[in-house]
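Hey everyone, long-time lurker, first post.

I ran two proteins through the pipeline my lab uses and got sequence/structure pairs for each. Pasting them in order. The first:
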Amino acid sequence: MLLPLYYVIPVLGGYALTSYYLLRNPHILHKKKKLPFYCRHISHRGGAGERIENTLEAFDNAMSNHTDLLELDCHMTKDGKVVVSHDLNLLRQTGHDLNICDITYEELPLYRESLEVTFFPGHYSSGSDRRIPQLEEVFQRFPHMPINVEIKEETPELVKQVSDLVKRYQRSERTIWASVKDPVMKLCQEENPNMPIMFTARRGLILLLLYYTGLLPFVPLKESVLEMYMPSIINRTYFPSNQLMRNRFLVFLQDKLMMRKGLFQHLQARGIQVYLWVLNQESDYQRALECGADGIMTDYPSELRSYLQRYEGGQRTRSEAQGSVTDNRHGNSY
């Protein structure tokens, strides 16, 4: 009865050691991806806490705060214009119960004068710009800025139009295809395979399964970006519509399973950037960086900028202090 153990234990031990070694050294099996941009500061809907979301004014404000990536969402009007809007139905944003796909661009209503921040209930933004812009306007205004374009609806014509705009403005390498839905992402990849892509919800679950079974170091990954929510913001600044997602035990379990520095480091060693969303408090900024995330997605670009300046200044001060200690130990104090 014990004889099989003499074979099973060494095999499992060898597998575990090999998996661990390759997890730390993924370059042995995988060529490192090389995105032409690195994003630390990411503006969610252009910074929906400081200006009305997804407006040119919001994007301008994000740029003035040295954002590294603009995050936005797209839909298509009845007359074929690709517009920047999070919702397909405009009731929340404008007060008018209309679907973007059912009206022309000229018929689009203005945003409300004051709009509640989705990921910070009880907080509102306003601005002088209340117009829903076209995606082409954003590309024209910010030709060199990396942009994360989320496609929410499985609409082949919308995907084609977005792809055509990306190609026209020669920005395939600095525009990310984003969607949580596999069918939508498949359409995006087929239409423009040169654009980097994020993990969909299903692919994210597979990623975690591969990580915890030790298979991740052996499996190639097509994605270049992991965009995920930080579970600890649930029931504080993020209230999922699914009541089950708000269960305290499930939130705790998600946090323990998802916020793994070892996982983030492995992905980064493979050239895959990790972004956490949507973080609107300094304690959340701090935790994201402590967990090893590359980028922080926020509704408050100016607040994140201020925090990162202090954080990076503190990092430099500590580095210089450590260098001074090292010099003193070697008798090289200046």
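...and the second, right after it:
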Amino acid sequence: MPLNLPHNLPAIEILSKEHIFVMNDLRASTQDIRPLKIAVLNLMPLKITTETDLIRLLSNSPLQIEIDFVQLETHFPKNTPIEHLLEFYKPFSSIRNNFYDGFIVTGAPVELLPFEKVNYWQELTDIFNWARTHVTSTFYICWAAQAAMYHFYGINKYPLEKKLFGVFKHKINDPSFPLFRGFDDEFYAPHSRHTTVSIEEINEHPELTVLSQSDEAGVYIVSSRGGREFYVTGHSEYSPLTLHNEYMRDVKKGLKSVELPINYYRNNDPAQPPIVLWRSHANLLFINWLNYFVYQATPFDIKKIQELGEL
């Protein structure tokens, strides 16, 4: 998918080397179509890595997209150069009157904290509420999925005995649901988290539908509001080496509880390259979301998103 990006965003150079087509803002200005407007609230500490992972997946369909990277104003990240944030990120207050066809909220490394103890919780829930009237479809990832389900529906998160870490097999509960067009009957997706949610609690809410789950990893994808919100507890956007980098980081820290990521390394040997089992699923997941729940659902006049209502 041609993405309208600032011409010097680091992700462009990285993805060009992978032969993935992205379009800078100069070329995009010559195309006489209305691009989809997607906002990304990037809560991950390594923001450039996450930007690249998401753009890699959003670039795989024939529609043009404009992306706004959004940052919180009550929390300042420590692992991304200030110059990068100033050039490529917008504070939420500067976009809160805008409307977006799609909105992605990433995970964050705060899952062991109670939600209300996260220092930017008030601002984040304000953004969650804003999305319901200013966005056609929102895609919550990992901790953000747990946080949004807690905020909107009171779904609790629970600590796991050990970190859920690796690539796990999933099944689809409703194969006819458009999000799963082209999917195999079973598919793999990465997870990296210390907490989980209860399918029993989710099923108590008729507004929520569990679309996909795993025998090992639990609930994976939940939808609400007719596809205007998706809660994805895993990391389909991860690049091939992300789990490896997380594993090596924890090994260097000397953490005694570190275990090899499951179903990841060839021959279960971290000296060998990983086997990527989730790439096709990840591409289909994002393409189907963009096609069926953003592009086909959003009004041409983007300001009429508000007329879609909160229900």
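Reply from user beta_strand_b:
Welcome! Quick read of the second one: The two ends are 30 Å apart (CA to CA). The first strand starts at residue 3 and ends at 5.
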